[in-house]
Design a protein that fits this description.
This protein is of the alpha/beta class. The protein has 3 domains: 4-169, Rossmann fold, CATH 3.40.50; 207-317, 3-Layer(aba) Sandwich (Rossmann fold), CATH 3.40.50.1980; 319-457, Rossmann fold (3-Layer(aba) Sandwich), CATH 3.40.50. The protein has helices spanning 19-28, 32-41, 56-64, 77-89, 103-108, 110-122, 137-141, 171-192, 217-226, 242-250, 262-270, 282-297, 301-321, 337-346, 365-373, 384-394, 403-411, 419-423, 430-434, 438-445, 448-457, 478-500, and strands at 69-74, 97-98, 130-135, 152-153, 156-162, 207-211, 232-237, 253-255, 274-276, 327-332, 350-356, 377-379, 398-401, 416-418. Strands 2-1-3-5-4 form a 5-stranded mixed sheet, sandwiched between helices. The longest helix is centred in the last third of the chain and has 23 residues, at 478-500. The chain is globular. The structure holds iron/sulfur cluster. Iron/sulfur cluster (SF4) is lined by residues 14-15, 54, 56, 75-76, 79, 82, 136-137, 165. Residues 14-15, 54, 56, 75-76, 79, 82, 136-137, 165 line the site of iron/sulfur cluster.
């Protein structure tokens, strides 16, 4: 018999509820299969729960960027508020559907009925090709059974996914959850009969589908790199419209530009497609990638050599014309950190550390080996603590990282650049990517004296809980702190004792 207390997680627990309790509840509610699959696809790091934004943002954004796709969230109001806020901050320009719940509708199963009703209401084939319904943490922990939703209503596809923070470690991997669910659906449609061609038409050359969201110019650059091989760039997955999924599955070779699309790769492999890792970054990366794609497609070696000879000198020239001098530490959670590190090193940077929140996979193994051969410490599933420790230990001229890493760097007078906004939003591939980072990186490094000036300007304003201008001495209460610490220790001991029972 199921322990009822396990299947009644209450709204408001959120990220602060213990991940292990939420996971136990989800398993008790019949979601073990999904969680086991996530554990295999996205092996967890040292941190049990996300250190970045809510993972569901990744899948939400993928849905919101697709034409004629409606998105519906089912989760705690605070989670949905945060997710819609961030979506609109990033320019979603589209409504996010929400099915609210309370303890009663959650426990009685009414929430599922409400979700089903909302999907029926939304299913207008004139407006939508598909509706994506996402269970956030609490509905996943309660086992709200999205798989029981109708597969399709009035010709509108219904795709239900569970994206709990206690099963999907990063928002990058959540993109994979939705992309794979859509590929799976599209694969079943292809098996069932003829499907529509993409609106943009089909290439007359064999295509290479591209896995990973990139700067918009990158797929075009990759297309130019592939042309001498007699190939063309196929759709980018996650796709922008449903029909592109068919064209992606139709590509004989798939380039896993971003390495964390484990479940999507499984769909491509089930369709008999060959997957190639790494990406055409810098000179060595581009040469190796062209050779790997050529081999996967059985292109004659002379043609591959011709392409290499066409682009190699241009990349070398761009790298030489845009040198980067100085020491950089690099970290992020987008999945492209190793590629950026390669490019920076080929540009001349001294880069001793790269941390990524994503896991090691077959598709970034080449990049990892390349970096390690150059003495770089590559940290997969890096924690914020790893990244900050590296920044402090290596004393770089520039720290590229997530918001808290950059904040820490600036506090120390070290110039910092946000990976997500300033680095991953630039072309990286082929000749176009070769010189693209130098300007922003060198400009940031030259800010060292400004950073020092700011540091001395703010000297003496205090830090952490004594930050700010105080009229007297900061009102520190070490006695309160000691009491609070005692409480926390007691809770930790109780949790430990419970684990042992
Ligand atoms: S859905 Fe996201 S924000 Fe909400 S509890 Fe889970 S991880 Fe946290």
């Amino acid at each position: 018999m199921t322990d009822k207390s396990l299947i009644e997680p209450q709204d408001g627990q959120g990220c602060h509820a213990g991940a292990s309790e939420m996971e136990a509840a989800a398993r008790a509610a019949g979601n073990s299969e999904i969680l086991d699959q996530y554990a295999a696809d996205y092996p967890q790091g040292p941190h049990g729960k996300p250190q970045s934004m809510c993972p569901a943002f990744g899948s939400l954004r993928v849905g919101l960027r697709m034409r004629r796709v409606a998105t519906v969230l089912s989760g705690s109001a605070c989670c949905v508020y945060g997710l819609t806020f961030v979506s609109h901050f990033y320019g979603a320009r589209r409504s996010v559907g929400y099915v609210p719940f309370n303890s009663e509708t959650l426990v009685t199963g009414k929430l599922f009925e409400d979700i089903r009703d909302s999907v029926h209401e939304l299913a207008d084939p004139d407006r939508f090709d598909a509706i994506v319904v996402t269970n956030l943490c609490v509905p996943t922990a309660s086992g709200v059974p999205l798989k029981l939703l109708p597969n399709e209503i009035n010709g509108v596809r219904v795709v239900g996914i569970d994206v709990p923070g206690f099963g999907v470690p990063t928002h990058a991997e959540a993109k994979d959850v939705l992309a794979a669910a859509m590929l799976k659906y599209a694969r079943a449609e292809i098996k069932a009969g003829p499907v529509a061609a993409p609106i943009a038409g089909r290439s007359d050359r064999p295509t290479v589908a591209l896995l990973g969201e990139m700067f918009p110019a990158d797929p075009m650059m990759i297309g130019a790199l592939l042309a001498p091989l007699g190939l063309a760039a196929g759709p980018v997955v996650p796709c922008r419209e449903w029909r592109e999924l068919y064209a992606a599955l139709d590509s004989k070779v798939v380039a896993a530009i971003h390495p964390f699309y484990t479940a999507s790769v499984r769909e491509f492999q089930a369709a008999g497609r060959t997957v190639v890792g790494s990406a055409p970054v810098g000179y060595e990366g581009t040469m190796a990638w062209l050779a790997a794609i050529g081999a996967a497609y059985g292109v004659a070696p002379e043609k591959v050599a011709e392409a290499q000879n066409t682009f190699g000198p241009a990349i070398k020239a761009a790298l030489a014309a845009n040198p980067i001098q100085g020491r950089i530490t690099l970290s992020g959670y987008e999945g492209s950190e190793l590629l950026v590190a390669r490019l920076l090193i080929e540009s001349g940077a001294d880069l001793p550390y790269v941390g990524t929140a994503c896991a090691k996979s077959e598709w970034n193994a080449i990049d990892c080996a390349w970096l390690e051969a150059r003495g770089v410490k590559v940290q997969f599933r890096a924690t914020l603590e790893n990244d900050c420790a590296a920044m402090e230990a290596f004393a770089p001229d520039l720290a590229i990282g997530t918001t808290p890493v950059v904040q820490k760097a600036k506090e120390r007078g070290v110039p910092g650049l946000y990976f997500t906004n300033l680095i991953s939003a630039r072309p990286l591939m082929g000749p176009a990517g070769a010189g693209s980072l130098a300007q922003v990186v060198m400009a940031a490094m030259s800010n060292k004296s400004r950073m020092e000036g700011m540091k001395s300007f703010f000297e003496g304003v205090g830090a952490a809980d004594t930050a700010g201008i105080w009229e007297g001495a900061p009102n520190l209460r070490p006695d309160f702190r000691a009491i609070q610490q005692k409480k926390l220790d007691k809770q930790a001991r109780a949790a430990k004792a419970e684990e042992m029972i």
